[in-house]
Amino acid sequence: MAEDFGGLVDSEQGLVSRRIFIEPEIYEAEQRQIFARCWLFLCHDSQLPLPGDFFSTWMGEDPVLVVRDSGGTVHAFLNVCRHRGNRLCRADHGNAASFTCAYHGWTYTNDGRLSGVPYLKEAYHNELDRNQWGLVPVAQLDQYKGLWFATFDAQAPPLRDYLGEMAWYLDTFVDRRDGGVEVVATHKWIMPCNWKFPAENFGGDAYHVPWSHLSAVTTGFSSGVTTKPATTGAMVSPGNGHVLICVGPDDVGDPPIAEVIAYEQAIRPEVSARLGPRARRINPLVGTVFPNFSLLRATSRTFRVWHPRGPGKTEVWSYVFIDKAAPPEIKEAIRLAGVRGFSPSGSFEQDDMDNWQECTQTCRGVASRRMPLNMQMGLGRDRFDAELGAWASAYRISESNHRQFYRRWAELMAAGGWRELAAAPAREQQYA
Amino acid sequence: MRNDPDLIREVEQFLYREARLLDERRFHEWVGLFTDDVRYWMAGRSNLYPKHSKAISILDPSRYVEDDTALEDELALLDETKETLMSRVARLDTGMAWAEDPPSRTRHMISNIEVEPGADENELKVYSNFIVYRSRAGSEEDFYVGARQDVLRRVDGEWKIAGRKMTLDQNVLSAKNVSIFF
């Protein structure tokens, strides 16, 4: 019988085995149990505004083609030719009525139908049923306020249920104003680390900010990032492994640009009215939608996918997002803040990669691997907060979100399928 | 311009000296080579089908972009002013710039230099290519390869860099970060 990898996480004691960051068989199981099961982020609606627009991405290690067909309906298919398995579309994005495989010339329309097979009459004797050999769609595809997600698992709950209370927290990033947000092009780069290190960092590591990023704070790359003890804010976990770092409503993490700070002050009543009373209690700055989609509003405005590329490698696809209703000079300022703060050259982000790399690579050692990771900060000091609709830590720096993130990871690694997961007790009762 | 070997030699020497300042980590002197109004910009490249590709049939030609370099208002790897370059240099002096601690060991190779007339008589337009090798810590290695278009301006008898636009020939950057200068 296969080993129960779920046992490698002890969220009650805050201990996590380092095997989960390096061992190939655990990585393979993750691909099946997590990436082929969960809802994964594909792209933002503003990246495919018109019929024919397409965007090539990945779900785990599977290449996926997202395309708005000629009638305006969005589809997501495995970007794989049905004939010999060649990767069909090789471009990052573009606009197409149809796609033709470079190997033998099978052609698919932008709604996934197999429309052309060379020598269909002569070589296939007209016996190939093209209706059976269209592109393979994802099992479920849906969007939440412009964020397109898909899952390969037909049994997965609907997207809205999968997000649960996280949906409101997403609103605080992408639905602050009429029209939502739009994205500026992409940064893509390779980090030599396991995908879970950046995912957990964005989801709950307020602890590293006043040390890892102090150099960027003191040389003017941020404003209002609190590096001293404060009473407001909390680690917030709305369930299903989704996790966020939140500060108090009056703590802002805006880029250090006067016009952006003025813009934020000017729109605050509108945003507050739109988001409701909870936003007057808490301000979400960074978070992760389980498993590998993270959003950030501190010093920059970015969301990104941590694409797994083997146990020791992650390909980051990062986007700057901007309120669609913002004036052009604010959009430009946010774009620049993205380049300068959170990008491969970002004054914050460049310092993270080394740490995640070394945290991953030291797992290779036999003795080092035996040493469990300590995720005990604030153990037993979090509680379910009905007003937040989430578990919240007593102090604004805690590893409660790490425990929630890895607890969910372990549940998925142990469960046979979504039916078992659905039978688990409600989140509120799990600590009771 | 192409027929002025002295001027070409002068520009080459200027760019080689600049590269040496970077490799010797003399960043404060290096920042001093830029004018106050410089835009220092670097972008990567997209991976797009050319318009005549038979791999697709285009539905909406107005949506089709031929240029695979990012536009200047899109996301760049670097988009800096003199002030933000100085902040980046200041950050390296804090003792807490972890991406450069231990520091990168770089070697800047500058080649393919072409000198052309600039916008006015005080300026030159200079093309060059670069290969930057980075070795760091024990066995970390990266190559950054690309092209530069510089505007050099004569200020008080000295050449200054008044504009630098760079293209890095990678779509997915293979280095974990861009913590060095070019």
Could you walk me through the main structural features you see in this protein, from its secondary elements to its overall organization?
The complex is a heterodimer of chains A (432) and B (182). With 432 residues, chain A is α+β, with helices and mostly antiparallel strands. Chain A is built from 12 helices and 22 strands. Chain A has 2 domains: 5-30 and 165-429, Naphthalene 1,2-dioxygenase Alpha Subunit, Chain A, domain 1, CATH 3.90.380.10; 40-143, Rieske [2Fe-2S] iron-sulphur domain (Rieske Iron-sulfur Protein, 3-layer Sandwich), CATH 2.102.10. Chain A is 26% helix and 26% strand. In chain A, the strands form 5 sheets. A 9-stranded antiparallel β-sheet of chain A has the order 13-19-18-17-16-15-14-22-21, with helices on both faces. In chain A, helix 1 (24-35) packs across helix 11 and helix 4 (196-204) crosses helix 11 (400-414). With 182 residues, chain B is α+β, with helices and mostly antiparallel strands. Chain B has a single domain (5-46, 65-168), classed as Roll (Nuclear Transport Factor 2, Chain: A). Chain B has a 6-stranded mixed β-sheet with strand order 3-1-7-6-5-4. The relative contact order of chain B is 0.22. The interface between A and B is large, with 57 and 44 residues. Strand 8 of chain A pairs antiparallel with strand 2 (56-57) of chain B.
Number of strands of chain A: 22
Compute the average pLDDT of chain A. Answer: 93
Count of spatially separate domains of chain B? 1
What is the mean pLDDT of chain B?
93
Number of helices of chain A: 12
Strand order of the largest sheet of chain B: 3-1-7-6-5-4
User: In terms of structural class, how would the helical and strand content of chain B be classed?
Assistant: alpha+beta
CATH-defined superfamily of the largest domain in chain A: Naphthalene 1,2-dioxygenase Alpha Subunit, Chain A, domain 1
| Largest interface: chains, residues each | A-B, 57 and 44 residues
Strand content of chain B: 25-35%
The protein's oligomeric status is heterodimer
> What is the count of β-strands of chain B?
7
